[in-house]
Automatic annotation (TrEMBL):
Residues 79-107 form the C2H2-type domain. This is C2H2-type domain-containing protein. Signal peptide: none annotated. Residues 32-59 form a coiled coil. GO terms for molecular function: zinc ion binding. The keyword Metal-binding applies.
């Protein structure tokens, strides 16, 4: 009879081990599912941030703000045409004016 009791106890120990293994297996399945769902959420958030980043890259290329453009009243016109006395904000603008309006005039810098 003792032999029967010890075998029954051994069999119940094995079944307890199987139950513990099954419980661990179930926990792993649940954790895997939770992690999978969280991974989908994080991936979705990453994609949204990527889209926002691309929009910002288009708005501010090279990480810089768009260059501010001055209106006509804000430009200091210190470069004067020697022929017609028109003034310009840059030497390049003055040279273009001379080239197109006074093509016979020699293209030299007025400050030389």
């Amino acid at each position: 009879m003792e032999d029967f009791v010890s075998r029954t106890r051994q069999n119940s120990d094995i079944s307890d081990e199987k139950i513990d293994a099954y419980n661990e297996y179930c926990k792993l399945i649940v954790y895997n599912r939770l992690l999978s769902d969280r991974l989908k959420e994080v991936t979705s958030e990453r994609d949204k941030l990527k889209q926002k980043y691309e929009i910002l890259q288009d708005t501010f290329p090279n990480g810089k703000h768009k260059r501010f453009r001055r209106n006509a009243g804000q430009i200091k016109r210190i470069f004067k045409c020697p022929t017609c006395e028109k003034s310009y904000g840059s030497e390049a603008s003055l040279k273009n004016h001379i080239k197109f309006k006074h093509s016979s005039y020699n293209l030299q810098s007025p400050h030389e």
